[in-house]
Amino acid sequence: MKKNLIKLSIIKHSLVALVALLLTILNIGFFVKITEALPNQFDPSKFVIFDGTYDWDDTIIDKAESTDYITYTQFRDTICTAGASSCDTTKIIRFDTAEELYRFSVDVSFSQIYITGNPTEDVKLSDAKIDELLDQHYVLG
After folding, report:
1. Of 21, 35, 113, 119, which is the most buried if we count CB atoms within 10 A?
2. What is the pLDDT of residues 30-42, one digit of tens each?
3. With contact defined as beta carbons under 8 Å apart, do 139 and 69 qualify?
């Protein structure tokens, strides 16, 4: 009886190994067939070597004086008010707090209004003024 169980176990293991071998051969055959059907993807003419230059228009302005900067709060409270005809400034606008960054995101959105508590400023900015806001130079403080 024990010999029959050992023989049966050997037969089971042999069948499992045979099935695994057949599946491996089928798998290899499948991937070889797929690989042959694919075109050669390597084309050296499609590679671009980076030469260290960039194609954007603006050059980086290197400002070193503290008078070259204005905080976003100062900018919105004094230069780019809701009633101002222009928001253009030669200064670089600096975000010093998360609140200023949040206010900027609300100011340039097309649906939200930043509530300051001043009724003349609690209005949605015009599309032209939003475009001017987006054209300024900004840094994180």
Report:
1. 113
2. 777 666 666 666 6
3. yes
